[in-house]
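Proteins fold reproducibly. Next comes a concrete instance:

***
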Amino acid sequence: TGMMTPDEAWPDREDLVALLQDHRVGGCKVAARGPPLTDMGYIRYAEVPAARGNPDLVGQFRQQVGNDVFQIRRPSAAKPPWEEAGYVGQIRTMWDHYRRMKQIIADGTNRRSFLRSVIEKWRRAQLRTKEGALMTPGAEAEALCDFWKAVNGSENESNITIMTGYNFAGEEIAEAIRGLQANKSAPQHCAPHVFWKLAAEPIADYMEDQVFGKWRRGRAEVPGDWAAAWPITLLDPMGKAVCGVLKTHLVPYLMDKATYLPLFGYIQQRSPQQALELVFAHCAEARDLAKAQTRSLYELRSGKVRSQCAGGLQISIDFSQAFDRADRGLLFQALTFLEVPADLQELIKRWAQATTFHIHKADTQCSYSSDKGIRQGCKLSRTLWCCLIVYILNRIDQTLGTPWSQQHLVGFADDLHLRWLFSDRSGINSALQEAGTVLSLLEDIGFLLSRDKTVCLLRAEGVQVPHMLRKLVHKKNKQEERILCIDGRWQLPLRKQHVYLGAKISYGAFELQNAQHRKQAGQAAFARLRPTLMSQRALSLTKRLRLWQVFVVPATLYSLGASGLTKQAFDIIRVMFVRQIRAIARSPRHLTEESDHALLSRLSMMSPYNMIRLQQQRIFDTTQNILWTGDGSDFRVHPTIVQRERQLLDMVQALATDSEKDQAGIHSCQCDQCDKTFDNEAALRAHKAKMHSAERMSAAPTVFDRQVHGTDGMPKCSGCGHAFERWADLQKHIEENHCQGRIPIASEQVKSVMTRTKDGELDLAQIY
């Protein structure tokens, strides 16, 4: 190595001199042979001068540089995989089995002993014509292009005019290029993201000179590749980096309006947890409102007033191709509504108009320009969608009243949820009218609503409900599926329960239903990891348990912090967790006779109750911190959310009675006849039913007394604590000796004042 002299012959002398001039470098260290620069320096500096004057060639030259520097070749001395020691034995065994099988068949052995099953071969997905014939790759590309043209295509090429000036800081571009994820894929003609990251500073300087400097002077256009999209939403890395900078400029204007709206998707520091808390709070309130209309003694005693019709209605709206069909004119109106600066609006508008979609199939390439939709995959698309939704909510509020969306709507990404509570017939009629108005408004502004996936949930109780439902609810084609007639334009499927944002919502026992739903998700996550979790050779027991905590536990506990857990729902999750831990640790209860508490202590594992409690406490503390340190008008601290989280925390803490005693090794569930102890009430009841029921059932019938066997004047058993709906059910429970609890000794009966007066024991005249 050494310094080059101006007169020294060098194959790349011209490029190197241009490099020194462009970057004002006095000299550089080069290799004696091979590439004129070191590997990293070759990528970082040699590529820029070769593409001077044409930004689109930067990516192509960078890819060429990467291929020259990072050439992957198999060494000539390396053995092929089938000759490696790990495979030789398996291949030899496979062919030995094959020869034996052929010999058995040749000997005439009964073929019924062989299990013959056809293994379906993997086939590439192919399109067919209307006649059923397979399409060629070229025909497939044209068919896909025609389909998407019908969705968001434009007949004429977009006429992109020169945009107004916009200012970019050089540090922002360099930081955005360094922020590209190295493991993300890029289009075939673009260099991998890691090459862009290596050359972040020189590329930023070059783009400043060739592109952004002209943008400031208002004489530049958006490069075509920056606004283009390829299959599976592959984007140009440079365009992706610039979109990231535009997003940081746009977000402050979005948050000025979105902070006070119930939108929880694609917005920083908001999550589906908060959206689900609003939905489940509505489900709980509507359920209580409907239960109050029944003839339950407990509801009447709590002071709930009965009405003719009360309950709740909710609609989960599903958009078809929401991003692809978004109206750009509406989007530009949204930017104006958010008071985005004119230069930023103009840049985003030009960028959207320059969007081109490319479809590749084999050697066939098709492309088309679009006049609607938001290009998915770039960092700016989600922010633009939020801007559009904020404007749509403003349009809804203008139609139905200013606070309407805050009271009746929840938004997460492209999912909208509407909800109403009603306490009379006019309330449900008003809810249906508002639902029809919102659905029609969304369809009129260009969205395509899926009539099959947009579903309703309705819960109504009262004297007028049966007559009302006969007019509103019909069966679809005389099938079991029911349809709710909102108005003449909208008839939507009516469900008893629905999966919304990964959680099971309903007006019934949604705590139990959601726990069962998340149990299935936890079992599925465990099944995917089962080969690793159950293998003693793969990882140590500590690492396998940690792997289980990282993947299975979050998949199971998701949304349980919003729906809440009853005792029955908690037992479902607890039993599943303990069984999975025992399976990983190879410690079955019937063989080791090790209690759950002893097992968790030995493995240094947190109990299922503490896992749930810590999650709920973390959710509550986060909201409280926002409440004390942030703006009180932020929708993250809406009174409904704060109240719901407090109720859920109390609900979880109420489950601690048995769990904390189990954790401390104290077994309070003790049989009053044989003094055996058990971990929970369910185990104690099962023991009594099996071991001590014969004597109890053969005993003489117990004389029922409301004052003795009831609780606080209600049909709640004073022995076992079970609450019955009717006194007759409690009487049967006592007289047939089904109660496993201890019935208090009957108190001495005292004659009433009326009885003593009739018997002559009391003279009322003396009292007066």
About this structure: Residues 510-665 form one domain.
